[in-house]
């Protein structure tokens, strides 16, 4: 409990520092200097195809340290970056990191990058993404953009146009955190996503018959809309066993790998099960 409190206190302190005494201007400067000083970094969390045991993709996640080297949570700095517009620079930075990793790691099929509504609203957004992909010399279909369901997405003709442009370029678009926002169902009916990531809330409440039934229904719903699910937040082997019995192969979560450095991810890729050999799901992921 003391540890938990310590963490919470540290987070509140950092978030306040980031907002600054004078409000967002200081927050923006703090973030810009963090970018300039190389205090932002990217970690990558594997998304595993449990039918083969192999890494199918990795999600890029941003990390930030304050000037004293203490980690600031994305939940504290992303909202400030969005409000101040610094997310445009930070977002372009992590896109380059992701494409760089793809260029140096042919064994990694896909990297996904989170994008904020603020980035999508930027008229240069698609151009920036295309330029980064081109500069890295990678196939555009190896990059996925994760968009969170929100009021800004559903019913917005701009977003539909943007998705058409991205898919013409071959870049994938995934719906993130499905099931938590208020616009999830309208998003599914209006827009065509390559993948739908089911929020970790659902797998983490599938221990009860009711929770399991809800998750199965969400998975069926995604499938019935001809879209493919990724289940986020698996922390235990028995969750994978249960949810794979619902027909899901793609999972992300601490049980399969924490967000890790590029170096660690490369090691994981080098150690994968052989694609030629039959793979025993229960032996690998069972309790
Ligand atoms: P997200 O995109 O839904 O990312 C998944 C979050 O769940 C990550 O938190 C990840 O570390 C965490 N996670 C993964 N597996 C598990 C698990 O098994 N259990 C639990 N409890 N958590 C798990 P993180 O890295 O703290 O990021 C939080 C959010 O911040 C992200 O949620 C995303 O919305 C935002 N974010 C992170 N990096 C970026 C970025 O580069 N750009 C933008 N726009 N947003 C970002
Ligand atoms: Mg995400
Ligand atoms: Mg998510
Ligand atoms: Mg999220």
Task: Please outline what is shown here.
The chain has 287 residues and is of the alpha/beta class. It has 13 helices and nine strands.
From the N-terminal CA to the C-terminal CA, the straight-line distance is 28 Å
Oligomer: single chain
| Largest beta-sheet characterization | 8 strands, mixed, barrel
Helix content: 40-55%
Organism: Methylobacterium tardum
Protein name: GGDEF-domain containing protein
Domain EAL: 24-273
Overview of this protein structure:
By secondary structure, the protein is of the alpha/beta class. Helices cover 48% and strands 19% of the residues. The chain contains 13 helices and nine strands. It has helices at residues 2-19, 24-36, 74-84, 87-104, 117-120, 125-136, 157-169, 184-190, 200-203, 209-224, 237-244, 262-270, 281-285; strands at residues 40-49, 54-65, 71-72, 111-115, 143-148, 172-178, 195-198, 228-232, 250-252. It has an eight-stranded mixed β-barrel with strand order 1-2-4-5-6-7-8-9, surrounded by four helices. Helix 2 crosses helix 3. The longest helix has 18 residues, at 2-19. The chain is globular. The model is unreliable at 1-13 (pLDDT under 50). Bound molecules: ligand C2E and magnesium ion (3 copies). One magnesium ion (MG) is lined by residues 59, 114, 146, 176.
